[in-house]
Amino acid sequence: MKKGNKYGIHRVIEPKGVLPQPANKIDNNMDEIYDNEILIDVQTLNIDSASFTQIEEQAKGDKAKIAEIMLGIVASQGKHRNPVTGSGGMLLGTVEQIGDALIGKIDLKVGDRIATLVSLSLTPLRIDKIKEIRSDIDQVDIDGKAILFESGIYAKIPDDMPANLALSALDVAGAPAQTAKLVKPGDTVLIIGAGGKSGMLCCYEAKKRAGVTGKVIGLCHSEKSTKRLQDLGFCDYVFSADATQPVSILEKIEELTKGQMCDVTINNVNITDTEMTSILCTKDTGVVYFFSMATSFTKAALGAEGVGSDVTMIVGNGYTKGHAEITLELLRESDKLRKIFTELYA
Amino acid sequence: MTIACRYGTHRVVSPKGTLPQPAHKLDNTMSIYDNEVLIDVSTLNIDSASYTQIKKACGSDAEKMKEMILAIVEERGKMQNPVTGSGGMLIGTVREIGRNFPANRLKVGDRIATLVSLSLTPLKINSIKKLSPASDQVDVDAQAILFESGLFAILPDDIPEKLALAALDVAGAPAQVDRLVTEGDIVCIIGGGGKSGILCCYQAMQNAGPSGKVIVVEYSKENAQRITDMNLATDVIVADATNVMDVYEKVMAVTGGRGCDVTVNNVNVPSTEMTSILITKGQGCVYFFSMATSFTKAALGAEGVGKDINLIVGNGYAKGHANLTLNIIRESKPIRELFEKLYV
After folding, report:
1. Phi and psi at residue A43, in whole multiples of 5°?
2. Which of A197, A265, A327, B210 could serve as a FRET partner for B101 with CA atoms 20 to 30 Å apart?
C-alpha cells in the first residue's frame, strides 16, 4: 500500500498544496487505498441541511433532478461539497477495509457500522447508485464508497438505537459535549436558540452539569419551539424573543438573574446579528460559546471591546474528545429527548 | 441629570433599540447624563482603514479631508466612517464627571486616552486645528462623552502621549498572551513582526521562561530579522502564513513534531486559520487577533481535521491591559526605541 498523509493531502488533485476541504477536486479512486485510510461501504448520506435545501430548490423538489445534481457534484469534485453553500454533511456505512498502518491502532474492525463525523465536504466519495431520497430529513440512501482519512473522526453506531436516530443526534454532537466541558455546578447558563436540535441537547446537558444550585435559561424564537421546550422541563426558565434585539433581552436576563448575568452563554441560533445579545447577557468574567455558523468574527471581537466586556469568546469546534459518546448517552438517559428526536428527526 | 444606560443606549437617536456602535446617529449634546464623563478632546487618532479611505476620497487634500470629517460627525454625532465602519481613539482632558460614574477612577483634569472605539463615542467638533494627510492623528477643539461601560487609560507622565497612544492601540494582545502562556509552553506567534506581534513576543518570552519556546512566523524578511536582533523569540521562521503545509512542516521541525501549546494569530490577511489550527497541539489553544479571521473557516477547519482545541475570538479588552502594555514600553528599551522610530 502507498503511504498516505494524515490529513489526506495525498488525495488533493487541485489546487495543489491545500487541504482536502478547500480543494476543488480530490481523487476518489477506491480501487486501491492508502496505508492510513479506511474504506467505507456507504448506505446513507445525511446531507447538511443548508446544502440539501439549496439542492431541493434548484431541482424544484423533483427527486430525479435532485439525484442528478448530487451525482454531478461528486463527479466533478470527488466529494459532496455543495458548490453554492460550501457545506457537506455526514455519512453512515460499514467498514470494508482498513489500511495496514492503522491495523491495531484503532478500535474498528471490518464489518463495523460507523457514522463519519467529519464533513462530506472533505471526504472522498463515489456514488454508484442513488436508491432513495428522504427529503423531509435530508437523508439519501445510496450504493457507494467513501474514504476516511487518518485524522478523520467517526462514531460506532450502537446496537440499542435505530441508526437514523443516532445519526440525527451525532450531526450536532459537538454542542452538548462542549456544554458538558464548560458548565460547572451552580452556573447560570443562557442557551440562545434553545428550541432547535442542538439547543435541546445543550439545555438537557447544561441542567445536568449546573445542578440544583445552577440555573438554565432557554431563549427560543417561535411559539411552537418555546412551548415544546417548556414541556420538556429541562430549563428553569424558557422565554420567546428575537435574539437580534440586545436591549430588551438584556433587560429580561437582568431581571431573571437579579442583575448577576450568566456565567456561560451558548449561541446555537443560525441567524446573523446575535453577537451583542450573547456578549451583553454574559458576566464580564464569563464565557460565550458561539456554535452558530452565522457568527461574524469582527462583530464579536469589536462588540466586546466596545462595551468593555472582558468576556471569553470561543469559536464553536464541532469536535471535542468523546463528543459522540456523550451525545448518544443523552438519548439513553432521557426518554423525553429520545422521544422528541424520534418524532422530529428520525 | 437624567438616569441613563450603562452602555449608552440613551444616546441612540436612530435606529431605536440598537447599541451605540451599530446606531446610525447618536445624540451628541454635550451636557452629561449622571453616569457619563465629559472630555475636552485634543487629538483624534483615526483608525488607519478609515483615514486611508477619507484621504483617497479627498485626493489627499487637507481642507477637503477636514470638511469630510466634520460632515461625518455632524451627520452621525460620532466619528464612524460610513464606508469602513471603523472609528479610532482619542486623547483629551476630563472636564466633568457624572455623580453615578464609578467612583475613584477619574478626577477632573486627568489626561486620558479612550480605549473604546470612536465608532460609538458621542463627539462634537468645534474646529479642526491641525490635519496632515500623512498622519492619522488629527488635532481638534472638540468634546466627547465616555459612557459608564467605556474604557480609558490615564496617560502616564513618563511616556510621551503619542507613543502611549500607539502602544495602547493594540493593548489587548499582550494582555491576553499574559493570561494564556505559562512556564514551559511552546508558543507560536503568527505575524510576530508587526506592532502587536512585537508586544506579544515580549510577553510570551517573559511567561514561557527559559524552558519554553517562542516561535515567530513572519512574512517580511526585514521584520523577521528585527525580531532576531531584538531577541524576542527563540526561533524565527520566514514564511507565508497562508501556505499551510510549508508553515506546518517548519513548525514541526522546530518543535520536534510536538506542535504548540498556544498559537497567537496577528496577521491581517485572510486564510491563515488552518495554519493556526494545524500547528497547535490537541487540547491547545489558538487566539485569533486578526480581524481577517473567518469564523466558519476556523470552526469547520478544526472539525475537519479532528482537532480538539480551543479557538478563541480575540477580545481587544482584558482587565489591566493598558498598564501591562505601558509597562512593556517602560521595561524594554529596544521596543520603546523602535516604536518611537516607527509610530511617533
Report:
1. -105, -45
2. A265
Binary contact (A151, B300; C-beta < 8 A) = no
Task: Confirm or reject contact between A190 and chain B (CB < 8 A).
Answer: no
For residues A92 and A42, give the distance between their C-alpha atoms in angstroms, rounded to a whole number: 6
Contact A305 B307 (CB under 8 A): no
Q: Exposed, middle or buried: residue B150 (CB in 10 Å: 0-12, 13-18, 19+)?
A: buried
Pick from A85, A178, A181, A297 the residue to mutate for testing the B interface (most B CBs within 10 Å): A297
CA distance B122 to chain A (A): 13
Cell 466586546 belongs to which residue?
A: A304
CA A257, A259, A264, A265 dihedral sign is positive
Cβ atoms of residues A314 and B312 within 8 Å: yes
- Closest A-chain CA to B150: A308
Mean pLDDT of A98-119: 93
Give bridge partners of residue A93 from the DSSP assignment.
Answer: A42, A114
Contacts (Cβ under 8 Å, ≥6 apart) of B271:
B242, B294, B297
Asked if A306 lies within 8 A of B301 by C-beta distance, the reply is no
pLDDT for the residue B229: 96
Q: Which tens digit of pLDDT belongs to each residue from A202-219?
A: 999 999 999 999 999 999
Other residues' Cβ atoms within 10 Å of the Cβ of residue B59: 9
Binary contact (A119, B303; C-beta < 8 A): yes
Q: What angle do CA A204, A208, A214 make, to 5 degrees?
A: 110
Q: Is A106 on the interface with B (CB under 8 A)?
A: no
What confidence tens digit (pLDDT) does each residue in A228-256 have?
Answer: 999 999 999 999 999 999 999 999 999 99
- Cβ atoms of B241 and B214 within 8 Å: the answer is no
- H and E: helices and strands count for chain B: 11, 14
pLDDT digits (tens, 9 = 90+) for B32-70: 999 999 999 999 989 878 898 999 999 999 999 999 999
Residue B190's closest CA among B116, B288, B96? B288
Question: A143 at the B interface (CB within 8 A)?
Answer: no
Three-state DSSP class for B186? strand
Element (H, E) at B42: strand B37-46
Say whether A290 and B117 touch across the interface (CB within 8 A).
no
Half-sphere exposure of residue A95: CA atoms within 13 angstroms, side-chain side: 23
CA B190 to chain A, closest CA, distance in angstroms equals 18
Confidence label for B1 from pLDDT (cuts 50, 70 and 90): very low
Nearest to B116 among A247, A306, A317 (CB): A306
Q: Which residue out of B80, B242, B285, B295 would a mutagenesis test of the A interface target, given it has the greatest number of A Cβ atoms within 10 Å?
A: B295
Sorted by sequence, the CB contacts under 8 Å of residue A202 that are 6+ apart come out as A175, A176, A179, A191, A194, A266, A268
ipTM: 0.86
DSSP letter for B10, please. G
Q: Tell me the pLDDT of chain B averaged across its residues.
A: 93
